[in-house]
Amino acid sequence: MPPTPAAPATGRAPDTTAEVRVPYGPLLTFATDVLRGRGLPDGRAATAARALCHGDLTGFTTHGLTNLARLYLPLLDSGRCDPHAEPETVTDTGAAVLLDARRGLGLWAAAEAMDLAVERARTHGVGMVSVRGGTHFGCAGFHALRAVEHGMIGLATANCGHQRLVPPPGGAAPMLGTNPLALAAPAGDHPPFTLDMSTTVVPTGRIRAAARAGETIPPGWLADADGAPVTDPAAYDRGEAQLRWLGGDPEHGVHKGFGLGLLVEVFSALVSGSGVGPQPAAGTVPTARPDDDVGYFLLAVAPATLRSPADVATAATGLFGALLACPPHDPGDPVRYPGWHEQRRSRERTAHGVPLTPALHDELRAVAVAAGLAFPAAVPAGGAV
């Protein structure tokens, strides 16, 4: 098994001003081949690669290919993630299923769980699949959108296992993870509504990306032990700053962000029996870490089992069309909803190449060399795929 290459160490902040565009199709093939080389079966390697590249296509780059060498290959190489894992059905009531992912790669395990939820929703109107024993599943929106492909509404949540990153409001010790959630719904004739968010102000990936780039961050993302804002992103990994919940402080609704984080913990961990943030990790696997035994909650809702599909589509077109038609304060900045920009960005990047920072481009080329693979050639400046 080829070793995971270390990120290039240049001794200076990486140059992020001159992006490199790489064709999406060959980039997807490259990611699939890398994961297949780590032992994943062909179909699951392809699904995982699509989940990973989804971040780069839509603009959620902190959950895209930047995590290939930094997160997913180390998971596989260390044995914390089993490339040959086969999920086990623990309970099946028809509309609701409990699975044990058995340390499978979350990028495909959560996707397959949502596909199962969709299958059950066709019969029951709703399908819920709860998963324990998982690993990091990437962009929550990718999994939620799998329901939209079938005309359904998808909800995807994940906790962070026993990982503790954020203290409760007024608390001195971290207790929960960033606990992401995503809701995706058909919007009729318009791009799907896709809300993909952490319940903290930003995910840890945004903090670390800023640190790698040598940038400062806005006040409000991090705070020190006294609650004062911290703008040096490197302070987070030095243990000198903590993430903040959405809302930030009591005057601006921090209880809402914290409450959403707990909502995700309940759905993802209490329902499935996965690792829970506020409890110490048992560590049944010798190489287990606090961010193992992640829980997922995948829900598919089929409104067309309750109403005429044509009526649902007409109502969705009207709802999201009315939002798009809302008069803007600035005529040059029209009103949009979550998911609109992501679809536009995805289409543009599919046509003209996926932008990579020079640092990430170098990292992925190093992965290709270590794996004995060719890396896709860049798209010429101003060119199309």
TrEMBL record:
Alphabetical keyword list: Oxidoreductase
Protein name, entry field: Ldh family oxidoreductase
Record-stated family: Belongs to the LDH2/MDH2 oxidoreductase family.
Species of the source: Streptomyces catenulae
Keyword Metal-binding found: no
